[in-house]
Amino acid sequence: MIDLFCGAGGLSEGFRQAGFDVRVGNDFDARAGETFAATHDDAVFLPGPIQNWSASQFLEAANLKKGELTVLVGGPPCQGYSVYNHQRGLHDERSSLYREYLRIVEGVSPEWVVLENVTGMTSAGQGGAVLAIVEGLQSLGYRVESKILKAEEYGVPQERRRLVFVGNRVGADIPWPAKTHGPGLAPFVTVRDAISDLPALVNGEDRGIVPYSQSPQSAFQAAMRGDSNLVTNHSATKLSAVNQARMSHIPQGGSWRDIPFELLPEGMKRAKRSDHTKRYGRLRWDGLSSTILTKCDVHWGPYIHPAQERSLTVREAARFQSFPDWFEFKGSRTEQFVQVGNAVPPVLGKAIAEGLLSKIRSTPKSKAKAVKRELANA
Predict the structure, then answer these.
(1) What is each CA distance from 1 to 13, 22, 241, 358, in whole angstroms?
(2) What confidence category does residue 78 fall into, taking pLDDT thresholds of 50, 70 and 90?
(3) CB-side exposure of 247: number of CA atoms within 13 Å?
(4) What is the arithmetic mean of pLDDT over 218-245?
(5) For the residues 53-69, what does the mean pLDDT come to?
(6) Is the pLDDT of residue 375 over 60?
(7) Where do the structural domains in the chain lie, given as residue ranges?
(8) pTM of the predicted model, to two decimals?
(9) In the predicted model, what is the mean pLDDT of residues 268-285?
(10) Looking at residue 360, what is its pLDDT?
(11) How far apart are CA 97 and CA 220, in angstroms?
């Protein structure tokens, strides 16, 4: 597989866990590229904007010919569609990067395509980008479907929605992953399941790389640790004295409404009780994490630790995104948070990939070979 707009490599990590050979990644974010390169030893990282690279260069880096790639995945930058971007829409230049994905699809001609984005894409510009992606892939000979997947229903300890497109040119049905968690299935993976084993920290504390303070307390923690013996990317942002005072009033599951009026930020003193519902939220041990964004700032949402008077660390955010602990993020803490928040949870990526792999293995080879012959004669 080849991963376009790969970021730190959450989607490709999920595909790798499912058994795919990750050949190439591309992203314009240099720090994310450092993380991808360090965590994908066997892959080639092509740095810089995708506009700088041709389809033939991707194929050369992957050591493949046109039509030989099994799957091309990609997640064009989503801020142009995000509900957190109040000026969102198709006028945002980031909203047109899906066309670059289609350009590479045309030049590489993979058997399968996977494209993911935020659910806001369905409404921004009256859903124009969704229609353009579907029609673009269909014009290139792909059968394609889209679906909104809930990450928590596949074992990710976080409320997260992603719009996923899956298509193929080999005549196969689209294999959507079956839900594994929720009512009637396995219980959701909770905040406690995800992070209760990580070393305790106080506000502003940075102990560097440290050993685990206790054994795994859940199957999820054991899976995230793997063979790791040390905890990386685990330091607490130093919050101001007034923010510490505010946090002291907030119980698990609470929010800005629990802060005494005189301690509220000036702008929030005028807020209605129905406004800013997630600001200054404290997570509940037995609940799910809120959606991890590119900045786990208590002013933005529920990013206060359930039992400690501090905001979340990069490692805790990475756990909520289901990144394994050996996956070390490069750059400053701010840059690390961006990489984690922009990523597709590997566990969700793995569920998508396993569905594809099952379908690929069951698709008659004669059908795929016939399509390759057509390409060769085109």
Answers:
(1) 11, 5, 48, 15
(2) low
(3) 25
(4) 97
(5) 98
(6) no
(7) 2-182+344-377
(8) 0.91
(9) 89
(10) 93
(11) 35
Residue 295, token pair as written in the block: 């900045």
Confidence of residue 267 (pLDDT cuts 50, 70, 90): confident
pLDDT digits (tens, 9 = 90+) for 150-162: 999 999 999 999 9
Which CATH code of 3.40.50.150, 3.20.20.70, 2.30.300.10, 2.30.30.240 fits the domain covering 2-182+344-377?
A: 3.40.50.150
Active-site choice (1, 59, 61, 78): 78
Say if residues 247 and 279 touch (Cβ distance below 8 Å). Answer: no
Give yes or no: 296 in active site. Answer: no
pLDDT given at position 124: 65
Checking if the pLDDT of 92 tops 70, the result is no
CA–CA gap between residue 351 and residue 349 (Å, rounded):
5
